[in-house]
Amino acid sequence: MYRYFNSSYKFGSIAGALSIIAFITLSFLYPDPTNLNLVFGYVITPVAIFLAIKFFKEYGNSGYLSFAEGMSVGFVAYMLESIISLGGIWLVLLIHPDLFEQIKLSKLDVLASSKDSIVSQVGGDSFDLTLESIKNMIPFDIALNDALWKIIPGLFFTIIISIILRKNPN
Q1: Domain total for the chain?
Q2: Range of the domain at 62
Q3: For residue 109, is it within any domain?
Q4: For the residues 120-129, what does the mean pLDDT come to?
Q5: Which of 73, 155, 166, 170 is deepest in the core (most CB within 10 A)?
């Protein structure tokens, strides 16, 4: 079992650590680093999945890869990345509550500046519900959102990469 997930652990852990580093770095450059960190996640997640599956195929499985093996290796890679990212971002926001408040204020400002557009598209009740949810937001919510936006594309990329790299013995 270890040979199946050796590369997953490595690349998932590296991607998770890079995601935390990106969040911290972006927090120095922008008042709300969450959106750009999501974009970073869209770049690093498929790279980590590809490398994990490719390394498993080449170095752990003699050049062969079934779809199920690719899905398993990719799943571990993106789940580990998202869990490490969730824990790291949550910890950063707990240690620096001023950063959390800055992010919260930024999200409230964006919501207020686009109120007319949002109300016209989804209605006043949806706007009020969104406003209330942002006001009640806690640091874990930001970290969980980041993790979820690594899992959802991670599944998609794992399917595609597993199909592309699949090679069964003849």
Answers
A1: 1
A2: 2-96+139-165
A3: no
A4: 87
A5: 73
